[in-house]
Structures are given as structure tokens and as C-alpha cells.
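Annex B. Sample input.
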Amino acid sequence: MRCHVRQTEWCLLVLAVLGLGALAQADGIAAGPEPSLFSRNYEGRLDLVVREPGVLDAFQVRGYPIYFVEYATAAIQSESLDRIGIFVESDRYHGKILAPQLMKKLDEEALFDGHDYDSVDLARFYSLAARYAIRLHPMEIHMRDLLIRLGILARQGEQYVAKRTAALLTAVRGMDERYGAGTRRWVLDHEFRHGFYFVKLRDEVHAIWEDMLTREERKIIANTLRRTARYNPDDESLMEREFHAMVFESRFEEDLQSLWTRGLDTEAQPKKSDVDDLLDKLPEIRRAFMELEERLTPKETGP
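Annex B, continued. Sample output.
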């Protein structure tokens, strides 16, 4: 999720495919209206299902097939999930399982805190690796076995299938200590929005994406996400779920206002008036998303 070194193209690529887009330093993070209210959808509702001391803790959101893995170190998380992130979300390498030599170069330039995937994409990654006899890192195998243990994946012959609709979310322990108070909550709000998108809100988020944005506005968002974070702009589900999470972050508005003018290629820039019209729509879109999310929030009960 987070990049600690200069934002080279490599850094931007890996930043993008690990779940939180163009994020710089923690003191530059700011969120939109009521940024902590969404945490009621997971804090206090995470039931421990697996504990591996020194490696990871795995939790399930009560009542939902959403699993959150908190790793002891960034290195363990990277070994477990970085290649999956690139396979799922990269603009350049989506659908590919990169060689260890290239992964080593990427990992030398970036460090991450968050991942988010649905069960179908996880099954695609492990099936492709099995089909072509791609050698997996021991921690990738460990993650595969954990996903089977949790009932997210199942093996069918030499392939893997999604046993059910489910979401895998991960982060690294100690984010507040490393980056400043409030970082963990900010990261988890983003990641758990993806989790609920995967298992509960996909159709509703898609409807907002289609109905409240014009085709040109969707293109502006997709190009902004690609240029700032190297997401695959042709993956509509990726675009709409990242928009769903990022629309609550003021940095996303800054990206729309300024970063889109510094493209990574020669594609024509959108008109400023079109970007301004999109920015004017964001408060209404945030309210629409918050209405969806309010339905997930547990109701307060009296004494």
C-alpha cells in the first residue's frame, strides 16, 4: 500500500497493485466527511479464527465472509501477496505472474501495508500457477493453504476454485507506530470498503458508478488512477471499487485537480471544465455511498 522511497515508475506500479492507490506520506493523509464512521462495520466485529504467533492473525467479520489477515511484518506480507497484487491490479502486468528477479527489483523500491482480493481472483492466480507449474514462494503456498482452511478456496484436480463469494483483506501490524496515529483506521476503512464491495455492495456501487457519472467522468477517474497509481484502467470493477474507497479521501480530489495534468503517457488531457464538473458531483456521490454503508452498520441496542 505505502511507498517509502522516491516515486519511480516501479514504485508507483507496486503502490497501485497493493490496494490503496497514490498515497504519499502519512502526514498528508486526510479523509472526507465522517471518516471514522465506517469503522463501525468492522471494529468490535472481528472474530479471531487463526493465530500464528510471529506470522499472522486471521479474523472474520461477524456475519460476513470477509477475512482480515494482520501480518507480523511487511516482509511476510510481501512474500505472501505481492505477486497476487500485481497479477490482479497492475496496468502493465495484470494476468501475469512475475518472475522472482523482477519481483525482487520491485520489492527493493517499495513497502506496503494493505491488500484486498475477492475469492475468484485468488483462485485465478493459484490456478494459473498450477497450470504452468510456476514455482511459488513458501509464503504464497502458506497463504493458499490458509485460504483453503478458511473455506475460501477449494482444490479441484490441479486447479483451484472459489468455494464461495468471499473477500481477503490484509494489513501489517503497527501502522500507527510507523506512520502516525490514525493510519491503521484510515487504511482499514479503505480496505474494508473493498471487502464489503466484494461480498455485499458490488451491484449497488456499480449502479452509482454508472448512473451518477458520465462516460467521460468515468474515463477521467480511470486515467487518474492509472497515472497516479498504475491501476489497470480497463478493469471496471477495479475502477469502481477504488473510486468507492478513494472518494472519501481528500487526496483523491487533489489527484483529480492536479496530478492528471502530469500524465505518464501522451494521452490527451481532459478539459478542466469536465474535471470541475466531476469535483462538484463528489459530495453527492459520497452521500450515496454512505447511505449504502449505513445499511451495514449494526444497529445500536438499548440496555
